[in-house]
Input
Amino acid sequence: MEVRRARETDKEAIMDIYARAREFMAEQGNPTQWDESYPSSALVDSDIQADGYVVVEDDAIIGVFVLSEHAQEPSYKTIDGAWLNDEPYAVIHRCASDGIHKGVGSYLMDWCSTQCSNIRIDTHEDNIPMRNLLKKKGYEYCGKIHYFAEDYGEDLGERLAFQRITPAQ
Output
C-alpha cells in the first residue's frame, strides 16, 4: 500500500468507495452519518484540489481520506470536554476504504501520524468500526463537538472528537 495525492482522474473510484462506505456504515448500525449525497461530487472535487489523498495498491485505489494540515476546523472551537492541547493541528476527514482490502484504515492512520504530530478527528457515535480503529491507533477521546449550519450550510449534528499527539522521535 502507498498514499498519494488524489487526482481528478481518481474521482470515479473515490465516489465508488464512498458509496460502498455508506452501505457498510448502514449495515453496521450507522445509517445517518453520511446520507445518500455525502460526500457530494462538489465536495470530492474540492478535496481533490485541496487536501485529498488516496491509498493505492497494485495501481488500484483502495482507500480515500482528507488530511488538512493548515485549516482550522470551525466546529472544533467549542467542545463539550477538552482537547489535549491548543497547539496547531491537522484534521482527518472522510476516511473510507473499498471494503475488500484489509488494514486500509490502519495504514492511512499510521501514514497521517508520520506527516503530522498533532491530529484531531471526529466521528459519529454510531460509527463503532471507526471508534475502534481510533482507540487501536492511540487516539484519545476528548469530548463532543457539533457541526452547525452557519459553518457548513446544514446542521450535521453532534460528533465524538478524538486527538492523537505523536511524541517527537
